[in-house]
Amino acid sequence: MTYALAIALGLVAGVLAGVFGVGGGILFVPTLVALGLDHHVATGTSLLAILPTVAVGTWRQARYGNVRWRAAGVIGISAAVAAQAGVLVAVRLSDATLRRLFAVLLVLVAVQIAWRARRHA
Question: What is the mean pLDDT of the chain?
């Protein structure tokens, strides 16, 4: 991957993270896979790449009073512990299976968002 493409991906992910609170897995993983990375490598790269986005996004949102620190801490610690199990599962899956499962996750998230948007409209 070229540095120009990596910078462009980072800029788009940063804007999306700031606006919608998304970016890492939803944007980085599919893009990195489309650029030819193995899904396992794309996942690991995404997890590390999101750290600066998370730090800056949290700092800015905190300035507006939009961060619930206690809830974030509980969710974060729980997720970090569970991530260990997730990695153990992921490394045992083939690239194709992991890619399919990720696609199913994205579809389920999209359906849930569309459903809620329609209900509240």
Answer: 89
DSSP for residue 42: H
Dump pLDDT digits (tens) for 60-74.
Answer: 999 999 999 999 999
Angle, CA 29 vertex, CA 23 and CA 33 arms, to 5° = 145
Cβ(13)–Cβ(23) below 8 Å: yes
Q: 28-37: b or e for each residue (b if 16 or more CB lie within 10 Å)? A: bbbbbbeeeb
Q: Which of 1, 57, 56 shows the shortest CA–CA distance to 33?
A: 1
Q: Around 20, how many Cα atoms within 13 Å sit in the side-chain half-sphere?
A: 10
Neighbours of 95 (CB within 10 A): 14
Range of 108's domain?
3-120
The domain tally of the chain equals 1
Residue whose entry in the numeric block shows the structure tokens 């896979």? 33
In the numeric block, which tokens belong to residue 111? 């359906």
